[in-house]
Design goal:
Layout: H1 2-7, H2 11-37, H3 44-65, H4 75-92, E1 94-96, E2 99-105, E3 108-110, H5 112-130, H6 138-142, H7 144-157, H8 162-178, H9 183-204, H10 207-217, H11 228-240, H12 265-298, H13 302-327, H14 344-369, H15 374-384
Antiparallel strand pairs: 1-2, 2-3
Helix pairs in contact: 2-3, 2-12, 2-14, 3-14, 4-5, 5-7, 5-8, 5-13, 5-14, 7-8, 8-13, 11-12, 12-13, 12-14, 13-14
C-alpha cells in the first residue's frame, strides 16, 4: 500500500486541485453580481461548480486506481456512447448561445461535446497504438480512424459548436502527428483538411461568425456591438497592473464584461490579481501540460504515451484558444479556460483526464523500476530497428 502511495504523481494531483480551488474563488468573485441580477442567490454558480468539483474528485480518484490499459477493451462502448450522445443532443438538446449543445439531467446540464474530446483521444490512441507496425502505410495505417474522427467533428459542427470542433480537430492532429506517421502523409492530411474546409465554408460562414472576426481584429470600429466584449476585456486586463485591484474589487464584471465567470474569467483574474495572478494560473497550466508530455516519454507502451499526449494537448490547446480570445489574438469561440472557468462538463472531463494521466504515470513508474521481460525487450528492439522520422529508440514510434 505504501509503495502504491509513493507511485502517485503528486504534481498531477496538486496542480489541478489548486487550479480548480482558485477557479472556485474567481467564479464566485466574477458571478455573484450577475447571479443576483438574474434573480439567483449570489452563491449560485459557486455552489454548482463546487458540486461538479466534488463529483470530479471522486471520478479522479477512481481513474487514478483503474488501470488505463483496460480502456482499450472498452473502446467500442466508449465510441458508441460518444456518438449516441452527440446524436441525441441534436434531437433533444437545449440551445445556449445559439448552439444546441446541452442535455438536461435533472437540475444539471451536460455537454456531450466535452465528453467527446476525451473519448476521441482514447480512440485515436488505441487505434494508432495498434497500427505501429504499418503506420507508414497511408491507406491502412493512417486513414481508417479519420473516418470516425470526421463523423464526430461533423456532429459537433451541426450543433453548431465551431469552437469545440476546432479544439477536437487540433487534439486529433497532435495525436496523429505523435503516432509516427510520415511527414508527407501529414502534409497530405493537412491539404485534404484545408480542401474540405474550403468546400464547407459557404455553409459554415454566417454573419454572426464573421462578426467574431470583426470583433477580434477591428474591435474599435464597432465598440458598441461586435467589438464591445473584447474592449471590455482590454479594460479589465489593462487595469490590473502588476498586483491587481484586489480580490473582489474588479469593476468590469459588474455588468460590463459579459460571460465574466465563463470564457472571460482570465480577464477578471488580470483585473483583480494583476500580472502575478495571471502568472500563477499560467504556471500551473504549463506544469500540467509539460508533466503530461514528460509522462508520455516515460510510458513504455504506445497507448499510454499517445493518451498522455492527447490529454496534454487538450489542456494546452484549450488554454491557448481561451487566452487568445480574451486578448484579441483569436476570435471569440466560447472555449473555457481549463479548471478555472465555470462549466461542469468541462471540469468533469478534465478531472477524469487527470486521473487517467496519473494512472499512466504510476504504471510507467512501476514498470521503470521492474526489469523488462524478454517480450518487452524484443519488442523494443523491433521498433528501434525500424528507423524513420520518429522517436523510436526510447518510446515506440511516438514523435516529439
Amino acid at each position: 500500500m505504501i509503495k502504491k502511495i509513493k507511485d502517485y504523481d503528486y504534481t498531477l494531483i496538486m496542480a489541478p486541485i489548486l487550479l480548480t480551488a482558485f477557479g472556485l474563488v474567481m467564479i464566485y468573485s466574477a458571478s455573484m453580481v450577475t447571479a443576483v441580477v438574474d434573480g439567483l442567490d449570489s452563491n449560485h454558480y459557486l455552489i454548482r461548480q463546487a458540486i461538479w468539483f466534488a463529483i470530479g474528485l471522486v471520478l479522479f480518484t477512481a481513474c487514478c486506481i483503474f488501470p488505463y490499459r483496460y480502456y482499450q477493451k472498452l473502446m467500442k462502448i466508449i465510441v458508441l456512447a460518444v456518438v449516441v450522445m452527440l446524436a441525441v443532443v441534436l434531437v433533444i438538446g437545449n440551445s445556449v448561445n445559439n448552439a444546441q449543445s446541452w442535455i438536461d439531467i435533472g437540475p444539471f446540464s451536460i455537454q456531450p461535446a466535452e465528453l467527446a474530446k476525451l473519448g476521441l483521444i482514447m480512440y485515436l490512441a488505441s487505434v494508432y497504438s495498434k497500427k505501429q507496425d504499418y503506420i507508414d502505410h497511408f491507406q491502412t495505417g493512417v486513414v481508417p480512424p479519420l473516418v470516425l474522427t470526421g463523423f464526430i467533428l461533423a456532429l459537433i459542427v451541426m450543433q453548431p459548436d465551431i469552437g469545440t470542433a476546432a479544439v477536437i480537430f487540433l487534439i486529433a492532429c497532435s495525436v496523429i502527428f505523435s503516432s509516427g506517421i510520415r511527414f508527407r502523409h501529414l502534409f497530405l492530411l493537412i491539404a485534404l483538411g484545408a480542401g474540405l474546409m474550403l468546400l464547407a465554408m459557404p455553409y459554415m460562414v454566417t454573419d454572426e461568425r464573421l462578426s467574431r472576426f470583426t470583433g477580434a481584429y477591428q474591435p474599435f470600429e464597432t465598440p458598441a456591438s461586435d467589438g464591445y466584449q473584447l474592449i471590455q476585456s482590454y479594460i479589465a486586463i489593462g487595469g490590473g497592473g502588476l498586483t491587481g485591484e484586489g480580490l473582489g474589487q474588479g469593476v468590469q464584471k459588474l455588468g460590463y464584461l459579459t460571460e465574466a465567470h465563463t470564457d472571460f474569467i482570465m480577464a477578471v483574474v488580470a483585473e483583480e490579481l494583476g500580472f502575478l495572478g495571471v502568472a500563477i494560473v499560467l504556471g500551473l497550466l504549463a506544469t500540467i501540460v509539460l508533466r503530461g508530455i514528460f509522462i508520455s516519454r516515460k510510458s513504455r507502451d504506445s497507448f499510454g504515451a499517445l493518451m498522455a499526449i492527447g490529454i496534454s494537448s487538450m489542456i494546452g490547446i484549450q488554454a491557448f484558444i481561451n487566452l487568445g480570445a480574451i486578448s484579441g489574438i483569436l476570435p471569440i469561440t466560447g472555449v473555457p479556460l481549463p479548471f478555472v472557468s465555470y462549466g461542469g462538463s468541462s471540469l468533469l472531463v478534465l478531472m477524469i483526464s487527470m486521473g487517467i494521466l496519473n494512472n499512466i504515470a504510476m504504471t510507467a513508474k512501476r514498470e521503470e523500476q521492474e526489469p523488462r521481460d524478454s517480450e518487452n525487450k524484443s519488442e523494443m528492439e523491433h521498433y528501434a530497428t525500424r528507423g524513420g522520422n520518429s522517436w523510436v529508440t526510447q518510446n515506440r514510434s511516438i514523435r516529439y
